[in-house]
Amino acid sequence: MATDSLAKKVSSPGINVSYAAVETRHAQLPDYLSRDVRGVPPIAVVSTHPMLYHDYEVVTWARRLGIQTLGVVKSWDNIQKGLSSHCHLLSVWNPINREEALRLLHYRSDEVTMNGALSLMRLSPGVRDGAWKRRCP
Predict the structure, then answer these.
(1) Rounded distance between C-alpha atoms, residue 78 and residue 93, angstroms
(2) What residues form DSSP beta bridges with 118?
(3) Residue-wise burial string across 34-57, b where 16 or more C-beta atoms lie within 10 A, e elsewhere
């Protein structure tokens, strides 16, 4: 499968959903990962970077098995660039990202949550003390 998912390039919500369903039906977990989950299937899969191809493979495989998936948007511009993985739930930085996920990626409002810049939380004291909450109502 190509690195870029066709689903992110189409603008129709119906086509997006249909394409994701086709991808999910044909998804297989790569050999290097299937050894790790034999006998102990996960109850959830978290994609820490839903733009990357290796996360795409794991997310589509999980969706195929009915395992819940969460995508954590790593950077403020990732949604505009398009996400390779279509997770069940999406964690975004701010209200702008949330609106982009709804409008561009056709997520429902109950599938997108604003949690701030999770990838930077360890770096910024303002984020650790909850200052980002004042900017993300």
Answers:
(1) 10
(2) none
(3) eeebeeeeeeebbbebbbbeebbb
Radius of gyration of the chain (CA): 15
**CB-CB contact of 32 with 38 (8 Å):** no
Query: In the numeric block, which tokens belong to residue 113?
Result: 């949550």
Which one, of 113, 81, 49, 110, lies nearest residue 59 by Cα? Answer: 49
Task: Write out the two tokens for 23.
Answer: 């991808």
Q: What is the pLDDT along the chain (137 residues), one digit of tens a residue?
A: 343 444 444 455 555 566 566 666 666 666 767 666 667 778 898 998 888 877 888 888 888 888 999 999 998 888 988 888 889 999 999 999 999 999 999 999 999 999 888 777 665 565 555 555 555 54
pTM of structure: 0.65
